[in-house]
Amino acid sequence: MRANYRMQRLFVPHDLAAGTELEADPQQSHYLTNVLRLADGAEVLLFNGRDGEWSAAIAGRTKKAVRLTVLVEQRPQPPLPDLVYCFAPLKQGRLDYLVQKAVEMGAGVLQPVATQHTQVAKPGIERLRANVVEAAEQCGILAVPQVRESEKLDRLLAGWDAGRRLIFCDEDASTNNPLPALKALTEKKLGLLVGPEGGFSDDERRMLRALPFVTAIPLGPRILRADTAAVAALAVIQATAGDW
Ligand code: SAH
């Protein structure tokens, strides 16, 4: 069922069930009171990534916090998409964009990867999580992706579940069209790997192409910026082997 876009949607950490009383956090409370100017009795939508989406009514407020009473479940909790999105972190602005697009495009897990040319080896995980929540709130996404700690590429590959097909976006691929390789995939458990601004090193490319669970794909005849490549790859993967 498509999400309701008329009502304000807030991510909360609390468990959600009919009759639960909870307080919005200070930032959310400010937004509800001073920006949206919602009166007592007004309704919003709440989700926590576990219990689906619930309507809730404003049940009063103190100076610091708006109190909410949970009412009715609006949408059940969907499963997390089984797509692990591995990416070399980019500089802040582009990283914010890349994380939000990955959430919108249906990634289930966000896995930062430190590669040889990665410029930001350890991105701020709280900022990544904040971008995930923002994208989920804006797009009505209830299956909120997990953000994992950054890993070095070789360690990630050494610990990779061989039952999960890793689709490697290879800017050095000799063909242009990803569809033949993607249509040949049979696995439902998928991973995607997109490199950094400087691309993958030759050693990394050789290592990746030698692995049995890796499928290298091209993304057209032109080199894309890393954040463009992420969206392009997610689109063709979701359309051929994912949940579109
Ligand atoms: N220097 C540019 C692009 C670097 S390539 C920049 O500033 O972003 C960034 C990553 O995007 C690559 O490692 C690869 O994973 C992916 N990519 C970009 N163009 C691609 C293509 N034509 N085919 C496959 N992957 C591509």
TrEMBL record:
Designated name of the protein: Ribosomal RNA small subunit methyltransferase E
**Record CDD domains:** RsmE-like
Substrates-to-products reaction catalysed: uridine(1498) in 16S rRNA + S-adenosyl-L-methionine = N(3)-methyluridine(1498) in 16S rRNA + S-adenosyl-L-homocysteine + H(+)
**NCBIfam families reported for this sequence:** PRK11713.3-5 (NF008696), RsmE family RNA methyltransferase (TIGR00046)
Q: What does the record give as EC number?
A: 2.1.1.193
Which residue numbers delimit the Ribosomal RNA small subunit methyltransferase E methyltransferase domain?
A: 79-238
Concerning InterPro entries, the annotation shows:
Alpha/beta_knot_MTases, PUA-like_sf, RsmE, RsmE_MTase_dom, RsmE_PUA-like, tRNA_m1G_MTases_N
Keywords from the named record = Cytoplasm, Methyltransferase, rRNA processing, S-adenosyl-L-methionine, Transferase
Signal peptide residues on this chain, from the entry's feature table: none
Gene3D superfamilies hit by this protein = 3.40.1280.10, Hypothetical PUA domain-like, domain 1
